[in-house]
Give the backbone structure.
Amino acid sequence: MTEIEKAERMLDIETLVAEAVEGTEPVRIYAGR
Amino acid sequence: MYVEPENDDCDLDGAWEACGRVFGITSRSRSRGCDKTIDAIFAACRDYLGDEIELAHSFKVESKRADKKFPMTSIQISQEIGGRLAEEYPGTAVDVHNPGYTVYVEVREEHAFVHGPAEPGAGGLPTGVGGKTALLLSGGIDSPVAGYMIGKRGVELECIHFFSYPYTSQRAKEKVLDLARIMARYCGRMTVHVVPFTKIQEAIRDHCPEEYFTLVMRRMMMRISEELARKLGCMSITTRRKPWTGGVSDNAGHNGHQRRVCVARCSGLSSVWIRKRSSRSPGESVPWRRLFYPMRTAARYLRPGTPRPGQP
């Protein structure tokens, strides 16, 4: 296990990523407006 | 490609400026259309370009005849129009080798067009022909430049912005959206995906050693970006910095090329980080040579330990 992996091991990475993806807000940007 | 005004109220200057920002257009000319007769073409040249011809010390006429049913060849059109213009403007000489001004005549399928020398367009490739990329967009100047550069290569953009309210303000988010609006003038319409990042930052603060904050945060950003990129059908992730380094080491160690665009292709279960390793000091990156590497070439530059495409 690398140092960075040790630093991350307390994080629930999968859940955090899934929640962030789920909570993403799309904002449409139109050209010329 | 023709841009024709629907009526006299149209903002032709605005259309002209907008055409200069569209990727894929190499040059543009403001022209006047006329009937496909030699008299109408001459009249259009005289009325539309007369002032420029008169001001130039010499001129020539170049013709293109896309409609092969037109009774004259391109050379005959140039000779006829050039001769008539020389009579009309006796103070301006004809010089086919080093003309001061060139009149262009194009005989197309429905109309003929006359115009002066073309002005350069934005160049590059039309948006979308290079697939789609997920661009990590911050509020700085580097990421929009990265987006512009990759957009110019015909790649459609899906922007990703990490928003950490209240640690970053609503104004910071508006600034990012304003940057995206400026980019959209060049790269076409796009979507900015605003990712809520506060909870992740707080989790990192609570559970990770302080010296790894930046690096862990960036790794989380890349994980989320990769997930979103896959969901949105993007072929790559575009970021202004090398994705496996934290901002601090990036800026300190590679100051000379930190503004280069780098691309990580999504492939199978894991990303392929594309970088070129130095043969003299293995493990250290060298300045980026190209924006894109073909996948076969990229496989040679895989980060040690990264699963290759198709491998678990």
The longest helix of chain A spans residues 13-22. Chain A has a mean pLDDT of 88.
